[in-house]
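User: Please fill in residues for this 699-position structure.
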């Protein structure tokens, strides 16, 4: 394996000009004639019942068309996700739960009406405090992804007790929020009682279509959802959210198109978040650093509305050799908003704890952190026993160390100093599973030499239009400029949502199959194409359903150099470098963007992003970008992303693995490990803000 110095392909994003010129239209930018505006009203108590909705006062205000609440809102059908069953009863499960929506002729009038709406409550005692000894903690049967909550191999207690070197540490993280650039928004209208159209900011319009059809008792063919341009999601738009349901309710009630865009300050309560965690990691090893026993036990929270359990201990089941293993999850249902998907769910939080503990083991054994990880490389996936389809973590660690200049690093903490700054370097590994879902695609050839690829993929900023065109052009043997890609609407052939770093693998497989079939038809055809052209359609349900004989994962290594100011306590990341093994990289330009974006989110996770719960009011305290600090350009002066040339024949026809999420997975641990190396004190609570560091710094 060698580092990719010459990118295999670096096509410019197809939608770049449309985005920078404003020609790309996002959900809230569609305004049909007669469009009304809706503004939701969040609950003002953390738990209780609604006793009165004083709608009559608001209905007298200028421009107000309707006030919907549980008293008069349309009744909804069953939902797989109960967070969507808004305005159906008087119950308030958490602060911020939507209890009404005001519809008016203008956005300003809708906001004024929502602000003026008086709702009275019968509050009940609430519980929003997560602790690792909460009396209602329980072990669920499964965690996200359908994985068992608890797994054991060997005899962990005996293996740990017999180990010459033992690490036992607990790591904590606050809640984290997705904060996409484009807030959640929808424009919805009805054509009669049986035809619904929505433009929705979503990572998967097919899922939104199916959900709306179920909720409103419509056939799937009666619902059209368009998500052609989406300004980020990071998981928060991976499933339908209440805004599109409220907009559909309001449009049905008023008989007019209705636009609803959520205020950013309300997103923390209604679109999901990464739940806070307590993570205890215990590692027993020999003096040679080889792990004999490993336990990773997670405590987290969910809501009383829906169970969502972050699968943070899953990576520990497969990452390193561990003959004696125990991994488990416990959860408590609190009166809090429902957590949900956030970039690299499970892996991002779990690998922070695991890779921090590995650094502690390196210190305890006196072994270089890179060499320690290399000594614990498994021959097969420890949990399943399957061989890896490819596992080039060792190559990532070695190449990253070479590029970063790791050799010759002084392992002693707190010895490098420049002025008032203490300098340190850290490393962490990363992994993310290869996921794929069934997809369909259609491709059409025209007599003029052009091709059109059609499927309901969603581009959430990753460059899907560009990469799918590259896959099609390669399979067709055509010039890239001859291929057009139509995506983002349920009027197109069905395709799965953009999530789990599975989009390109899932969509691309069906595109490759359809284009290969069309290329065969064209080779067999003699003479000019007919005026109507020629088409091919393909689906991958049969291929995806086949269980792989291999454990399939992407891997990476992160290296960080930090400077800790001993006067202010600020941590500055001077260098951040990632090296990845993720199969064939289809587009170097968009891939590098994805890797760097993930690493930047990991930096925020380590240093700036945190969300605490107000115990008295039952609300997230940091609810906007003034108080919830996402990294800005000044925070990331030098970020590098590289990859290895990796050929893996056990994936898909393109040989690609997902890359959207692995960039975040090990970054926080690498930075935290670098902070320890800089100051000589191990802080285990993220984010590493100045107030936490200052008490431990030399004067």
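Assistant: Residues filled in for all 699 positions:
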């Amino acid at each position: 394996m060698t580092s990719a110095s010459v990118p295999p392909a670096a096509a410019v994003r197809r939608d770049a000009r449309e985005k920078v010129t404003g020609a790309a239209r996002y959900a809230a930018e569609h305004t049909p004639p007669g469009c009304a505006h809706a503004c939701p009203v969040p609950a003002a108590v953390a738990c209780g019942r609604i006793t009165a909705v004083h709608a009559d006062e608001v209905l007298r205000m200028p421009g107000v068309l309707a006030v919907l609440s549980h008293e008069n809102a349309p009744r909804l059908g069953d939902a797989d996700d109960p967070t969507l069953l808004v305005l159906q009863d008087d119950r308030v499960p958490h602060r911020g739960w939507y209890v009404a929506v005001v519809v008016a002729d203008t956005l300003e009038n809708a906001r004024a009406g929502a602000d003026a709406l008086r709702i009275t409550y019968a509050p009940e005692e609430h519980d929003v405090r997560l602790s690792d000894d909460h009396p209602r903690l329980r072990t669920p049967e499964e965690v996200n992804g359908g994985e068992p909550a608890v797994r054991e191999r060997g005899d962990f207690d005996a293996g740990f007790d017999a180990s010459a070197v033992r690490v036992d540490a607990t790591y904590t993280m606050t809640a984290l929020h997705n904060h996409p650039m484009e807030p959640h928004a929808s424009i919805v209208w009805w054509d009669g009682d049986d035809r619904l159209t929505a433009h929705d900011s979503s990572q998967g319009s097919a899922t939104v279509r199916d959900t709306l059809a179920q909720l409103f008792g419509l056939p799937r063919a009666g619902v059209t959802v368009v998500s052609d341009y989406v300004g980020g999601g990071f998981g928060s738009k991976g499933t339908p959210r209440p805004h599109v349901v409220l907009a559909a309710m309001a449009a049905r009630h008023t008989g007019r198109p209705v636009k609803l865009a959520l205020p950013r300050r309300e997103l923390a309560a209604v679109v999901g978040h990464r739940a806070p965690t307590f993570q205890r990691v215990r590692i027993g090893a020999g003096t040679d650093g080889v792990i004999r026993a490993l336990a990773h036990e997670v405590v987290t929270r969910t809501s009383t509305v829906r169970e969502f359990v972050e699968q943070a201990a899953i990576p520990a089941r497969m990452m390193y050799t561990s003959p004696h293993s125990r991994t488990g999850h416990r959860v408590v249902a609190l009166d809090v908003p429902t957590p949900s998907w956030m970039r690299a769910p499970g892996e991002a939080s779990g690998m922070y704890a695991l890779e921090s503990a590995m650094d502690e083991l390196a210190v305890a054994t006196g072994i270089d952190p890179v060499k320690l990880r290399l000594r614990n490389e498994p021959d097969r996936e420890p949990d399943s026993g399957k061989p890896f389809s490819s596992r080039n973590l060792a190559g990532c660690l070695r190449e990253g160390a070479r590029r970063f200049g790791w050799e010759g690093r002084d392992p002693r903490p707190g010895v490098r100093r420049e002025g008032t700054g203490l300098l340190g370097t850290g490393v962490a590994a990363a992994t993310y599973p290869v996921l794929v879902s069934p997809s369909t695609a259609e491709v059409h050839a025209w007599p003029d030499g052009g091709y059109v690829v059609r499927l309901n993929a969603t581009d959430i900023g990753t460059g899907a239009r560009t990469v799918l065109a590259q896959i099609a052009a390669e399979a067709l043997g055509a010039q890239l400029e001859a291929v057009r890609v139509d995506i983002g609407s349920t009027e197109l052939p069905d395709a799965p949502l953009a999530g789990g770093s599975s989009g390109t693998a899932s969509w691309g497989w069906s595109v490759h199959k359809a284009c290969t079939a069309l290329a065969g038809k064209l080779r067999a055809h003699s003479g000019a194409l007919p005026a109507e052209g020629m088409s091919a359609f393909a689906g991958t349900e049969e291929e995806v359903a086949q269980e792989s004989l291999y454990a399939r994962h992407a891997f990476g290594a992160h290296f960080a150099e930090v400077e800790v100011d001993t006067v202010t306590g600020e941590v500055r990341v001077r260098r951040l470098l990632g090296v990845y093994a993720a199969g064939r990289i289809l587009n170097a330009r968009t891939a590098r963007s994805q890797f760097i974006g993930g690493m930047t989110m990991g930096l925020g996770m380590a240093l700036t992003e945190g969300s605490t719960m107000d115990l008295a009011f039952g609300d997230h305290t940091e609810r906007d970008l003034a108080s919830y600090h996402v990294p800005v350009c000044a925070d990331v002066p030098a970020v590098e992303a590289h990859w290895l040339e990796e050929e893996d024949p056990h994936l898909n026809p393109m040989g690609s693995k997902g890359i959207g999420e692995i960039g975040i997975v090990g970054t926080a641990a690498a930075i935290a490990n670098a902070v320890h190396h800089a100051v000589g004190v191990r802080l285990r609570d993220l984010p590493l803000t100045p107030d936490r560091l200052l008490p431990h710094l030399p004067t």
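For context: Residues 225 and 384 are 40 Å apart (CA to CA).
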